[in-house]
Amino acid sequence: MNEEKKDLSERKKLILKAIIDAHIENGEPVGSKFLTQNKQIAYSSATIRNEMAELEEMGFLEQPHTSAGRIPSELGYRFYVDSLVDRYNLTQNELAELKRLVLNKQTELDTILQNAMRLAAKLTNYTAMALRPRMLRITVDRYELMRLDEYTLVLIMVIGQTIQTRHVRSQIPVPAEVGMQLAKVLNECAAEKTAEEITMPLLMHMERQMGEYEFLVSPVIKSICETITGYDGGEIRFEGINRLLSYPEYYDMDRLKEMLALFERKEDLVKILSEEAGQIGPGSEQVQIFIGRENLVKIMDNSTLVFKTIKRQGTPVGAIGIIGPTRMDYKRVIAMIDTLTSGVTNVLDDGTPPAFTNDQDPVTGKE
Amino acid sequence: MNEEKKDLSERKKLILKAIIDAHIENGEPVGSKFLTQNKQIAYSSATIRNEMAELEEMGFLEQPHTSAGRIPSELGYRFYVDSLVDRYNLTQNELAELKRLVLNKQTELDTILQNAMRLAAKLTNYTAMALRPRMLRITVDRYELMRLDEYTLVLIMVIGQTIQTRHVRSQIPVPAEVGMQLAKVLNECAAEKTAEEITMPLLMHMERQMGEYEFLVSPVIKSICETITGYDGGEIRFEGINRLLSYPEYYDMDRLKEMLALFERKEDLVKILSEEAGQIGPGSEQVQIFIGRENLVKIMDNSTLVFKTIKRQGTPVGAIGIIGPTRMDYKRVIAMIDTLTSGVTNVLDDGTPPAFTNDQDPVTGKE
DNA sequence: ATTTAGCACTCGAACATGAACAGTGCTAAA
DNA sequence: TTTAGCACTGTTCATGTTCGAGTGCTAAAT
Q1: Residue B301: pLDDT band with limits 50, 70, 90
Q2: In the complex, which nucleotide's C1' lies nearest to the CA atom of residue B44?
Q3: Measured in angstroms, what separates residue A8's CA from nucleotide C30's C1'?
Q4: Taking CB atoms and an 8 Å limit, are A257 and B242 in contact across chains?
Q5: Distance of alpha carbon B66 from alpha carbon B59, whole angstroms
Q6: Burial category of B350 from C-beta neighbours within 10 Å (exposed 0-12, middle 13-18, buried 19 and up)
Q7: How far is CA A178 from the centre of its chain?
Q8: CA→C1' distance for B253 and C17 (Å)
Q9: Nucleotides of C under 7 A from a protein CB
Q10: Separation of CA A316 from chain center
Q11: Chain A to chain B Cβ contacts (< 8 Å)
Q12: Contact check, Cβ <8 Å, A166/B107
């Protein structure tokens, strides 16, 4: 994929990398003269200018206006993250924080995701995102019913490794045996079934089995279907939205407004990201990076999303991501997300605290 | 409470109200000439100017700069909401939306709060807030244990009307009987106890009762304590943060930044608001309004918080609020929050759909 | 064939200027 | 007690000016 880009001369690569590094550092367009300060670049400003003009021609750079320096284009960033970006080694401090997170050994998926998201936001100082993706065939493995009081039952549903509960209220007292009976019926008829597979005939069959308490069936089934569809719909949360304001690219009100509006379009985001996160294959093994208006969320003009899937026994159960300006500190963010998600995946699988070393390139997967 | 403010002449009240109404309408300082267009005010601009000067003297108005009109001060708004603001009658449409919410008959407190918050944000076009307040003496009423698989138990805790679950993992297989045994021990020893009341001797006592499976006790108790302290710590959520940007007062980056930072200081907010929401007495019966830097959250310079407690069987279990510029449409917001919270409270208590009429003044409680 | 120095050019940022305007406070008359 | 009139003040907006950074191009140098 980056083979075809190898047609960039080494000198062009050097200059492009220097420009992007500098731009990430200070956020301003970088000019030819500035680059001559870079020890690695032993050419005059005029030479650099010529190279820059060519790089612009090729689409890697752009010029805000005639008499300004150059800034990287989205294509430029793409090339940068694919083949130019340095490896970042997490500091001892950062490693320690990550370790503390997984040693905490939470087992509730939601809690884990939330904590991981918080930590990601804190460590990177960008906005963090936690996704519980949509899933295709959500079914309840098992039902339990618990009597809260005479009139109230609690329906407990085991979905994969997680538990969902719902209250069921009756107008007349429900004896304990009826609750057990209902649980039995549910487990016989409604377990391992998707919302679509719970049909009217099935419901009527269950009602018949419940005798005089048949009136309980319909509301319970309604609750079940709501829960299933609510759960397989996925969920997305954000943390550290205010951190956006640390970066000058969001000082533009319109852009900011768009971003905040985006954050509230949770259904859309869940849908789009679930498709990315749910992919089987090498894609979901690695950190994924979406720069600017590259495919998915069109609105993210000047923003980049870096995220990686979290798995439990091989299937994706979540994703943690970072959202920030295209001009973000890619090397740190990539390293952070990669280590974080790997750590969480490990813990989910077997509770083993992971190694926490920077062992392989999180994007290309090599060495 | 507003008796002592009655020393304002009727004319001053008229003018003050007109100024605030106008300012709420268009957001700009209002001048003397503009007010002469108001049919109710049959004085010349000069007279109005004199009155305005006096009102400023008294602290109800302020002047951004010498040659501008007047804007209401926080004191002015306070007086306005206490004694000047009109009653707002919800439109048929609004009433219908509220009705739909409660007819939905959710029974999960969290879901109800979340839906109510969403609706509040949508109907008012301000940022909405949902609070589950801190509580003093949270205890688990009952424990249940469910076997997920050989190595995993699910601990189910009944706290008041709500259910909390936690996973418990064991290194070696746990037979079903052991789970039941553990549940029995928990119900005997750890029910109705706050986190502080579960002491080391008690823990050791439980361990002794569990025989060779004593290793389960410690992690379970840890989970329980975490859950209790997590739960009684309360929770706060927001919806529609981007709506802030509809209002020019948040076009100032610094202010906006402060607001967003405030939204992320959830612990502090929960603490402060819980104290307000949890008060027994008339305070929590009514819509509460905090204007600008009035007590609590100091940072809310140009913002107002309007909120009201939601109760179940007389005790506060939540609160719904609206956050917006001090220049907010008080009459609509107050009416909305009042009707919404009353409706939800009703449903929580007995499932009765409430009347949905504007029957009494939500702030002063009279007539 | 490359690289570099030099120079004219362009454009935006920052600042100053001045007119138009809205709204005030004050005074004197009604 | 109210009102008309007027001088005064501060904001906003359009316009103009300067300054400097950075460019592209050309011609000389390597």
Answers
A1: confident
A2: D3
A3: 89
A4: yes
A5: 16
A6: exposed
A7: 43
A8: 30
A9: 3-6, 9-12, 22-27
A10: 11
A11: 74
A12: yes
Q: What share of chain B in percent tops pLDDT 90?
A: 67
List, as ranges, residues 71-90 from A with C-beta within 8 Å of B.
Answer: none
pLDDT (tens digit, 9 = 90+) per residue, B313-324?
A: 888 899 999 999
Q: Domains in chain A, start-ordered, CATH in brackets? A: 3-84 (1.10.10.10), 92-135+234-350 (3.30.450.40), 142-229 (3.30.390)
pLDDT at A294: 74
d(CA B263, CA B129): 10
CB contact, 8 Å: A161 with chain B?
A: yes
Question: What is the structure's pLDDT at A5?
Answer: 44
Judged against a pLDDT cut of 80, whether residue A261 lies above it is answered with yes
Instruction: Give which of B166, B313, B302 is closest to B228, Cα–Cα.
Output: B166
User: Per residue, what are the HEC states of chain A?
Assistant: CCHHHHHCCHHHHHHHHHHHHHHHHHCCCECHHHHHCCCCCCCCHHHHHHHHHHHHHHCCEECCCCCCCEEECHHHHHHHHHHHCCCCCCCHHHHHHHHHHHHCCCCCHHHHHHHHHHHHHHHHCCEEEEEECCCCCCCCCEEEEEEEECCEEEEEEEECCEEEEEEEECCCCCCHHHHHHHHHHHHHHCCCCCHHHCCHHHHHHHHHHCHHHHHHHHHHHHHHHHHHHHHHCCEEEEECHHHHHHCHHHCCHHHHHHHHHHHHCHHHHHHHHHHHHHCCCHHHHCCEEEECCCCCCCCCCCEEEEEEEEEECCEEEEEEEEEEECCCCHHHHHHHHHHHHHHHHHHHHHCCCCCCCCCCCCCCCCC
Q: Which protein residues have their Cβ less than 7 angstroms from some atom of strand D?
A: A 29-34, 45-46, 49, 52-53, 56, 63, 66-70; B 42-44, 46-47, 50, 65-68
Using one digit for the tens of pLDDT, what is the confidence trace for B154-179?
999 999 888 999 999 888 999 999 99
The first and second tokens of residue A174, run together, are 């429900």
Cα-Cα-Cα-Cα dihedral of B205, B208, B209, B215, to 10°? 110
Sort out which chain A residues have CB atoms less than 8 A from B260's CB and list them: 241-242, 245
> Is the CB of residue B364 less than 8 Å away from at least one CB of chain A?
no
**Which of A169, A242, A256 faces B261 most closely, judged by CB atoms?**
A242
Cα separation, B348 vs B335, whole angstroms: 20
**CA angle, corner B302, sides to B300 and B304, nearest 5?**
65
> Which pLDDT score, from 0 to 100, does residue B230 have?
87
First to last CA, chain B: 17
Query: Among A65-69, A183-187, A361-365, where is mean pLDDT lowest?
Result: A361-365
- Work out the minimum CA distance from B199 to partner chain A, whole angstroms: 22
Please tell me the pTM assigned to this model.
0.88
Q: Closest protein residue to D8 using CA and C1' atoms?
A: B67
